UniProtKB/TrEMBL annotation, chain A:
InterPro entries per the UniProt record, alphabetical: Cas7_Csh2/Csh2, CRISPR-assoc_prot_Cas7/Csh2
Example GO biological process: maintenance of CRISPR repeat elements
Keyword field: Plasmid
Organism: Halocatena salina
Protein name: Type I-B CRISPR-associated protein Cas7/Csh2
From TrEMBL, chain B:
This protein's record includes keyword GTP-binding: no
Name of the protein described by the UniProt record: Type I-B CRISPR-associated protein Cas5b
Pfam families on file: Cas_Cas5d (PF09704)
Gene Ontology BP term (one): maintenance of CRISPR repeat elements
Superkingdom: Archaea
Positions in coiled-coil regions: none
Organism of origin: Halocatena salina
Amino acid sequence: MSETDTTSVSNRSEIIFLYDAEDCNPNGNPLSANNKPRIDETTGQAVVTDVRLKRYLRDQLDDDDEGIYVRNPSKAPYDNVPTRDELFQHVTGLDEDEVDEMDGETVTDAFLTNATDVRYFGATCSFSENFQKALGEGFPGQFIGPVQFEHARSLHTVATKTESKQLSTVVASSEGDQQGTFASDNRLEYAFIRFHGIVNEVAAETTNLSSTDVERLDSLMWRALKNQTLTRSKAGHHPRLYLRVEYGTDEYHNGRLDDGIRLDETASKTDTELRNITDAVLNVDGFLTELANDAAHIETVYVKADRHIKVAVDGEVTGPDTLIMELKAAVGEDAVTEIDVYGTSE
Amino acid sequence: MTHTSLNPVGRQCLSFTVSGQWAHFRRIDTTTDKQTYSVIPRTTVAGLIGAILGKPRDSYYHLFAPDTSAIAIEPLEPVRTMQIPMLTLPTEKGDIKQAEHVSGKVVIDPAVIEEERKRRTFEYLLDPAYRVDVILEDTETYENLKTALETGTTVYTPALGKTECLATVECGSPDSETATAEFDVHQVTDVERIDSIVPESKLTPRPNTSYAMERTPAYMEQDGAHRRTTGFLSYGYSPAAEPLPVQNVSATTVDGRTVCFM
């Protein structure tokens, strides 16, 4: 289990994360026939829930050997499923007797030190009566996550693939079944998806979220999107632009920085013609204006831009280097830090 | 119906716009499908202000009681919803356990979750926005809220009903260039149209006009370690976010708009 530093988060951050999904199903709707991609019927935009994004992040934390409390049910073995008490013991490495000897506050710290996902996203916890007693009164039943993401929508109307594949694999729905079932395969041609999130420094105190945790997000989100999208329905995802705007002013955040990043209507292909990153151009004028307006509140803009993205600034189509330059022009040379996603993990 | 006993006329109110990409105000009268109210309930407005000011859970209900507060709510965007199905936890008897020390939260054993997850539909509002006018008797809270609105600060992350429905709170009107939060409340009589939601008692059905009705929790109080709804409001609203026609009723004006405080 990893050790966590205790440097608390003192700044609020606003995160904008764009990734694209090519010829895949960014977020299936489990209530539709054959898990169709979620689509806003009125606007025709693809929708990806916050739960989907957080699952990628938790799975990446797991792969990085950070402890996670909320495990992936689809990866769990159906036999030998741990109980609530065992989940706690698994993540903390403490058994019931050890827990019994500790006071509630110490147990809480031990839990939060080891359950990295709870520090980010919170959790509701309850255990068997005996175990709850061992935990003591000081252990809260609920942790509210300081990191919150919105459901995301694509920047454009999406087109579903008209050619529907019948899967040739026959999968039995439960163990012992002689006969399996066929499934159809539903995919979108292309979706450029924009997530928006807030890291709240006040709420961070309740889950011991550290400044190291917040810095970890900068590489975690990028790597999660690359590494956790390797299944059949998810292959085709690429992280494209990550921005974490860290505010210096206490309790302040803009709240709509994400609105300023959209597809450039003239430079991009039309919505239904979009097939890959070369067809899309991001218009960032609105974003840059908001940043410049908020420059006095902003301490640092952390940015990672994929080299394939095209950006329209003031009507001119350029690449990621110009975007970095424009960011520096908006908030100051020293207030922009480029993220080295893989530098620290090696 | 419970209603505010505070007379808003001649007072000052704080006015802000709250908007977001998503909202979910859980209807209390549905079971498996998680449907939403169309208009942000008064209790949710109280919670939102609590979040802006950093009030701890269960600590602020008395500030929004009928005799200490008056709130008007104006929907600014047409009602549009989307169903988002999610895998949720079972609610079979015996699966649900109460979390210790947590009011109103239940948990399910992970072993049950991994085997028994159910598909349930959540109804979300898309791109909702409301203009909210608030009168508070507690001067300290009023002044703190005024400062927060004018400086654009919020202690906790504001949300519209659920934490993933991040909200933006703006001072006054969304079109306003200035950061003015405070407005005078004046009385008007013989009003024909009202911009905010209208209490059922002020509505008279008229030919060729349509509006929707809704009944949402309005007041709550602390009840031990839990909270309890103490009053509901029935009101009319326009799903198209247009003013509602009424017949010669009295109302109030705030910043050039006609509203009903509740």
